[in-house]
Amino acid sequence: MLDGLTAFGAAQSELLRLFARTKGMHVTDAAAVVQIIEHEDAGRPLTPARLAERIGLSPGATSILLARLETAGFIDRTREHTDRRIVTLRSTKAINEAADAFFEPLAKQLNAALAEFTAKDLDLLLSATDRLRALVEAYARDAMTQPEPTGHPTDAASQQLP
């Protein structure tokens, strides 16, 4: 099961790289666009800070990335919140249409494949993937709180050589 989920994740990563190539984008830019669209679709639009967390970039690197995406016409930065300092990221119609054209055929195939399962099967799969995801996220949070190792792992071994 874990091997299958790992392979599925790798296939998704490759699909993202392919989408980036077809749009002449860097894969990090494509990942940002996909995150922005997914969060918009879920009714939880991202701020630049939240996007930085989601794609693992520093605030400065995220700012440069957003400028690139805005210049390309892929995103807009809006001020929708009552606190006008808060910036909301929105995808443009052009990038939504491009993403739909690229991903929609696969989405239909995936939905058709899932339709072959019973509701009970899907509940079990959802429960299993939710539990596994939560464990990985908790592990990652715990790993971030651990101190950085000192020295290079081969330093001690190389010092023991004659």
Question: Could you please describe the fold and organization of this structure?
Answer:
There is one protein chain. The chain is mostly helical. It has seven helices and two strands. The protein has helices at 2-22, 27-41, 48-55, 59-71, 93-114, 119-145, 153-159; strands at residues 75-78, 88-91. It has a two-stranded antiparallel sheet with strand order 1-2. Helix 3 crosses helix 4. The radius of gyration is 20 Å and the shape is globular. The relative contact order is 0.08. The mean pLDDT is 90.
SSE order and pairing:
Layout: H1 2-22, H2 27-41, H3 48-55, H4 59-71, E1 75-78, E2 88-91, H5 93-114, H6 119-145, H7 153-159
Antiparallel strand pairs: 1-2
Helix pairs in contact: 1-2, 2-4, 3-4
What order do the strands of the largest sheet run in, or round the barrel if closed?
1-2
How much is the average pLDDT? 90
Please state the oligomeric state of the protein chains shown. Answer: single chain
Helix and strand run: HHHHEEHHH
**Number of separate helices:** 7
Q: Please describe the biggest sheet, giving its number of strands, its sense, and whether it closes into a barrel.
A: 2 strands, antiparallel
Give me the count of strands.
2
Features:
162 residues; mainly alpha; two-stranded antiparallel sheet; 5% strand
In short:
The chain contains seven helices and two strands. A two-stranded antiparallel ribbon has the order 1-2.
